[in-house]
Amino acid sequence: MKRKITFTLLAFTFVCGFFYAMTSYATSTVETKGKMNVRSGPGLTYDVIDTLQANESLTVLDEQDEWFRVSYKKDREGWVASWLVERKSDVESKGDVVISTTDGLNVRLGPSTQSNIIGKMDAGKEATLELERDEWSYIIVDGMYGWVHSSYLTKTTSETQKANDEMTPSPEAKDGQFTVIVDSLNVRSRPGLQGKVIGYAHRGEAYEVLEVDHNWVKIQLDSKKSGWVASFHGQLNASQKSGEQPSLFLISTIADGTNFREEPTTHSPIVKRLEAGYHLNVLKEEGDWYEVEIDGQRAYVAQWVVSTLNSPNISKRADEAESTTRKKASIPGTLNGITIVLDPGHGGHDRGTTGARGTREKDLTMKTAEVLALKLRSAGAKVHLTRERDTFIPLRTRAQMKSQMNADAFISIHYDANVDSTVVGHTTFYFHDNQKELAEVLNATIEQQVPLRNRGVQVGNFQVLNENSSDAVLLELGFLTNAAEEQVLLSSQFRETVSYGIYDGLLQFFND
Fold first, then answer.
1. Which residues form the SH3b domain (predicted)?
2. Three-class DSSP category at 442
3. In sequence order, what are the beta bridge partners of 410?
4. Burial per residue of 315-326, b for 16 or more beta-carbon CB atoms within 10 angstroms, e otherwise
5. How far is 320 from 40, CA to CA, in rounded Å?
6. Among 7, 180, 254, 507, which residue has the least CB neighbours within 10 Å?
7. What is d(CA 343, CA 446) in angstroms, rounded to the nearest whole number?
8. DSSP state of 229
9. Sign of torsion, CA 143 145 151 152?
10. C-alpha span between 53 and 398 (Å, rounded)
């Protein structure tokens, strides 16, 4: 009798739970933002079974990764991409203008670092903000709709302007030069985005400062014309006063909550935390730390958590420093004495890209890293893998392994994806200027070995790169979303040839 009662209670609990779940989903509704496809399963590789128009109401029945299973038009069901619908939790921001605070900001198909990259934004690029969801922003840039992480954007609304004014000390007016650090910068008739564009300034150009109004700088554009530019797109150097230590170059914080400490060690007390996109002049380098001044107080920040901003002198200085300090193989023609960290992308619950034929990126990166590790070890290198099996390793942990192992190079291995299945080729990414040489060498030697289109060397704001201060690259070795290229990438012959290309590049880099 007791067993019968227990069974009845369990059954009742299950039925109640089932109806509670159904009720919870039934009360969750979303609305389409535009014309969109309904698919038979949760992914872009599933068949399109229907098409919806803008402003249609859908009931969410289930969620999987970035996809919703929905009911619509009374009795129809299917899967829709979560980033193409609006939920009540979304914050409307339609019409706000936002600006990228970093070069190479990824624009993604959905609000996740695992979503496909469909474009990039450079520092200073303006976009229209449509809505915000959690830590992500849905924007329109150059006619393209996509998601970017909100920490790399700055708003130009009055509320944000006021916050920036409170955080950013106003530099000395009429006393110094402004050096442009982005490729092209609008010069406006008055401070603010409402000012008419009256000219352009370009990377590396320096202008006399006439006036400073919070985050806007008035510069002398030429002998007859002056105008206003946004201060965070350049380096503002006040005239050096007697006895004052000169600035070496400019850095930018690349993540919210960047710690600035009393001494150059992670055990030292934190004196300030700054948001992403905050620019500071470096006064001194001490080991792997930069000394800066914030609100009149000296502080230290780790080199691996900031980005060095370009200027003609900075690039030259970094190149010269790298050329004199790069480690060489202890035995010519080998990799003896060299330590390399290989990072097989993704793992565990993070499967990465799923190919047109169902290939999981996390599996292919692991196989490629294993083949490459054998070649490097046979040449005398010490090789460490960020993961050796199908486990999830946080990006920050991966990035830190280079310094923990005192490694000479960090190679992150990935396979690419694009919503356009015709896109093909391999790409080599770097972030800091002093990573570019290694990227160029590897890109060239890979091109010599593999039968794929070379998409070249590009700046990529990936955490495993921006948190490594030198000799770190991320390799996208081909597109799994192209069925024909996926077939090539799956072959053991490709893994052999591409790993030889990487091996040959590292051999050249540490011997030349």
1. 25-89, 95-157, 173-237, 247-310
2. helix
3. 341, 472
4. bebbeeebeeeb
5. 56
6. 7
7. 17
8. E
9. negative
10. 43
What is the full DSSP assignment across 394-426? -HHHHHHHHHHTT-SEEEEEEEE--SSTT---E
**E-strand spans in 440-502?**
454-459, 472-479
Residue that has been written with the tokens 């129809």 in this structure: 76
Phi-psi domain of 406 (left: phi exceeds 0; alpha: psi -120 through 50; beta: other): left
Amino acid at site 254: I
For residue 88, what are the CA distances in angstroms to 80, 92, 110, 275?
Answer: 17, 10, 17, 28
The CA distances from residue 359 to 284, 354, 378, 481, in Å, are 48, 5, 29, 9
d(CA 442, CA 82) in angstroms, rounded, equals 37
Q: Are 383 and 72 in contact (CB under 8 A)?
A: no
Listed in sequence order, the residues at least 6 apart from 12 whose beta carbon sits closer than 8 Å to its beta carbon are none
Structure tokens belonging to residue 236: 């503002």
Q: Are strands 279-286 and 289-294 parallel, antiparallel or unpaired?
A: antiparallel
Question: What is the per-residue pLDDT across 260-278, written as a single tens digit (0 to 9) for each?
Answer: 899 988 788 888 887 665 6
6-15, 49-58, 239-248: which range is least confident on average?
6-15
Q: Which of 171, 148, 120, 432 is nearest to 280 (CA)?
A: 171
